[in-house]
Design goal:
The chain is of the alpha/beta class and about 850 residues long. The strands form six sheets. The chain has a four-stranded parallel β-sheet with strand order 2-1-3-4. A four-stranded parallel β-sheet has the order 6-5-7-8, with helices on both faces. The termini are far apart. One of its GO terms (cellular component) is Cul8-RING ubiquitin ligase complex.
Length: about 850
């Protein structure tokens, strides 16, 4: 097709359809048509809402958006959809461009509008950026010209940057961080915080407020059930002239549950839009329903009718322009049952505002979970637009999953619980409010077909029938909370349990999913009847993958580089270590998700037995650095009736190699679980049966003698204390305390006390205005106020401020080492030794 003969003009063998839209008006479309005709092409300009011409007539479709009625049919027919730039560039180069993917308007190729050039940055970073941009639909230019949209540089002192500034080009000069964050999220975010010469991410502190962002993607698509009709078609001045339904017949489903008066109003609006109502599904062009079920829904979907809900219908009437019901998640009917695994989730929102918040609240309900206005320890997840909020701090302290909205949206569109371990769901760019990219995820028709309207057995006898009513059901997942890092709080005790931190790459670039670059269509449908068209689809899909293979290969190569984008230098060793706490925290949920997938594939798999033991594990070296072994063992234990939990208050048994001072062990003592040796786990796994835990009770006389208490007696006292040992105690803690503030806060609160962070504030009177001081007045037993501290000079310099604060509040200041709290928590009785208290003569030189 790219022949360059004297007898054949550039577009001599091309039949082109130019689609008008908001982004490409009729004047611009006609200009494109004239330019293509001058080069020998045959061109048709399509102006919605008129009927789209037969798709088979065209070799190319030019559109600035994929949001036009025939897009899905074009994908099925393997007709390329390209942006207007393809035509302009082909004419400029005097040849048809073969790499059409870089001109694909599909929003999943989120860098398809980017033409990037690189300044004075390391070669490794340059290769990674080029590979990522090409893989996500962008273009690389080695030189600066008018077409370059972004120059990646570290300063404005490079030759390319000076050229951009001297010529006053519209090119944006950005830090490499922007591409890194875009690729990690799989979405394009605003460049402003990364733009040189004075980028916000380098000059603003991490605690500074992050501006909220306007989001146009969800206007008119934030609710499943609109509370009112669109603006009336008849005003006091004139009648609105709608044309969106011109020549269309719309069928309304009985499951909408609307009254006769509202139904009449909707019919009037449709008729004013030059459409009509029908009760014959075969004649209908659009089918409006509430749920993804029923014969009409399945038939309409299989016949490729436009299937949407009332919210979508109102959107069409309001804007008088067509949009696909698959473009926005809440424009499509919902399922009564929700996503498998979401039942029981309690999700709260933070930092999302306005319509974005309403959209996420409704999406959570549609997914089958519960959205809570406030955050409590009973929540399972926190969805946040950035990491700076009191809710985020509290969620981390309570061991909840903290993720961005992409986890929810992609679980919904894939109709499968996505693992929170995916770095895309836990990445929060420093100065970006992710509310700006809410609503950009679209539904996948192939996923909908597999789950809600699969091909019947009469169409394809070799495929098993899977209708919505008899789809394999998965058990709701219980709440999984984060696993603690196995590091002793105070290391003067035996620490054979202390695991070596697992090394890895934090925040590395995310692998692009190959299916993103394959046009949506029947080549992806596993239950589509075998026809010549589907065979052709598979062949062309393979050809497309070969076409993009070089870009993906380069992208994959750069992914494997240690450190990802290094911004002009290698990261520190500590930046290359994945926090074991974070990495382990989602293994239970990821394992559950994999189990659900296996159950779907193997419907006859036996159910797990009832849970007999809720086991909390600490110091199990067998799993350190071996995630695959950990997953396998956990599944085997679950088959024996043992559920491995991560939250101390839910455990009935605690397994450890010895008496440890890890957060898990110390916190668990307050709940008086049965404490067994690690051998209990090993024997259960080796014998593949549930052995008697009373035969493996933990015995550690050496450590008991060192600490000065009996483990059995401590457990007995914990049963009597009922988590109220420190009730009435207020404990302050320095931020730089060894072991971390969060660990000691959890210990105090597990025993009924209150713990706050002390940063040197001296006022105690107003709690609402001064959270740092703790507001401890009237809450300390014996009129004492405690401060947990070490003996470093930086910590000691805060002691006078603490004393002043306590005295001003009428309290007796007690500055103590962490052993005071640990000995109390582990022995489960109030203890005091003079050696606990710290004084200035103990400060390190």
């Amino acid at each position: 097709m790219a022949e360059d003969d004297n007898d054949v003009q550039l577009f001599g063998k091309c039949n082109i359809c130019v689609v008008c839209s908001k982004e490409l008006d009729s004047d611009a479309a006609n200009e494109l048509a004239v330019a293509a005709k001058e080069q020998g092409g045959e061109v048709v300009v399509f102006q919605p809402p008129s009927a789209f011409p037969p798709i088979q007539e065209f070799t190319h479709i030019i559109s600035s958006t994929v949001d036009f009625p025939a897009y899905q049919n074009a994908c099925d027919a393997l007709i390329p959809v390209v942006k207007p730039q393809w035509l302009h560039t082909s004419i400029a180069n005097k040849k048809l461009l073969a790499n059409l993917r870089q001109y694909n308007p599909d929003p999943r190729l989120f860098l398809n509008d980017v033409v990037v050039s690189c300044g004075d940055i390391p070669e490794g970073d340059k290769d990674a950026i080029i590979g990522g941009v090409l893989a996500m639909g962008g273009i690389y230019s080695p030189r600066i010209n008018q077409q370059v949209t972004h120059l990646v540089d570290l300063t404005t002192d490079s030759d390319k940057a000076k050229l951009v500034l001297a010529r006053k080009l519209s090119t944006k000069i950005v830090l490499p961080h922007w591409f890194d964050d875009c690729l990690k999220l799989g979405k394009r975010i605003d460049e402003r915080p990364y733009t040189l010469p004075n980028p916000e991410i380098l000059r603003v502190g991490p605690t500074a407020p992050i501006r909220s962002a306007e989001n146009k993607h969800i206007i008119g698509a934030s609710t499943l059930e609109p509370s009112k009709l669109p603006p009336p078609a008849v005003s006091s001045q004139r009648r609105r002239k709608l044309s969106i339904f011109k020549g269309k017949q719309i069928m309304l489903s009985s499951d909408l549950g609307i009254g006769s008066r509202l139904l009449a109003s909707i019919e009037e609006l449709i008729q004013q839009g030059r459409g009509s109502i029908t009760s014959d599904l075969h004649k209908a062009d659009m089918f409006i329903c509430r749920y993804r079920e029923g014969v009409d829904y399945q038939m309409a979907s299989r016949l490729n009718k436009d299937v949407g809900n009332l919210s979508w219908l109102y959107h069409l009437i309001t804007h008088d322009s067509w949009t696909s019901p698959l473009r926005r998640l809440l424009h499509y009917p919902i399922s009564r049952t929700g996503i498998p695994g979401f039942n029981g989730f309690k999700i709260s929102l933070s930092n999302y505002a306005g319509e974005a918040r309403a959209y996420l609240e409704n999406l959570i309900a549609a997914a089958g979970a519960e959205c809570t206005k406030t955050l409590t320890p009973e929540n399972t997840h926190l969805l946040t637009a950035h990491g700076n909020s009191e809710k985020c701090t509290a969620a981390k302290e309570w061991g909840l999953y903290v993720v961005n909205h992409l986890w929810l949206e992609e679980s919904y569109t894939k109709w499968k619980l996505q693992p929170v371990s995916d770095p895309r769901y836990t990445h929060f760019p420093r100065r970006t409010n992710l509310g700006e990219i809410v609503g950009q995820t679209k539904l996948d028709r192939s996923v909908l077909e597999v789950n809600f309207f699969p091909a019947t057995t009469t169409q394809n006898p070799s495929k098993p029938k899977l209708a919505p009513d008899n789809r394999p059901k998965t058990e709701p997942k219980s709440k999984s909370t984060k696993q603690e890092q196995v590091v002793p709080i105070f290391n003067d005790l035996p620490s054979q349990n202390a695991g070596t931190p697992r090394k890895g790459i934090e925040g590395r670039l995310v692998t692009p999913v190959v299916s993103r670059f394959v046009a949506e269509g029947k080549e992806n449908d596993i239950d589509t009847p075998s026809t010549s068209s589907s065979r052709k689809s598979k062949v062309v899909a393979t050809q497309r993958l070969h076409e993009i293979a070089p870009d993906i290969a380069l992208y994959e190569k750069e992914m494997k580089r240690v450190g990802g984008l290094i911004y002009g230098g290698r990261r520190n060793d500590e930046d290359l270590v994945i926090n074991p706490k974070k990495r382990k925290s989602t293994e239970a949920q990821q394992s559950d998700s994999e189990t659900d997938e296996n159950e779907t594939k193997k419907q006859k798999k036996p159910k797990f037995p009832p849970i007999a033991i809720h086991l909390l594990i600490t110091g199990f070296e067998r799993w350190v650095g071996n995630l695959k072994k950990e997953d396998t063992d956990k599944r085997q234990l679950r088959e024996l009736g043992i559920s491995v939990v991560q939250e101390v208050r839910k455990c009935s048994h605690l397994a450890a190699p010895s008496i440890l001072r890890t957060p898990k062990f110390v916190n668990a003592l307050a709940y008086s679980p049965v404490i067994v040796n690690i051998d209990f786990i090993i024997q259960c796994l080796e014998k593949n049966q549930l052995v008697d835990p009373s035969d493996y009770l933990l015995v550690d006389e050496a450590t008991e003698k060192k600490i000065g208490f009996k483990l059995a007696e401590a457990r007995s006292r914990a049963q009597d204390n009922k988590n109220k040992l420190l009730r009435g105690y207020h404990v302050c803690c320095l931020e730089s305390i060894r072991g971390g503030f969060d660990a000691f806060k959890s210990i105090v609160e597990a025993n009924g006390g209150e713990c706050t962070l002390f940063r040197g504030k001296v006022a105690m009177g107003d709690r609402a205005e001064d959270h740092d001081s703790g507001g401890a007045e009237g809450k300390s037993i014996g009129n004492d106020l405690y401060l947990l501290s070490g003996v470093s000079p930086d910590q000691a310099k805060l002691w006078p401020r603490f004393r002043r604060m306590a005295i001003d509040a009428g309290k007796n200041p007690r500055i103590v080492q962490v052993n005071w709290l640990l000995d109390i928590a582990m022995s489960q009785e109030i203890r005091w030794k003079d050696e606990y208290e710290l004084s200035e003569d103990m400060v390190d030189e």
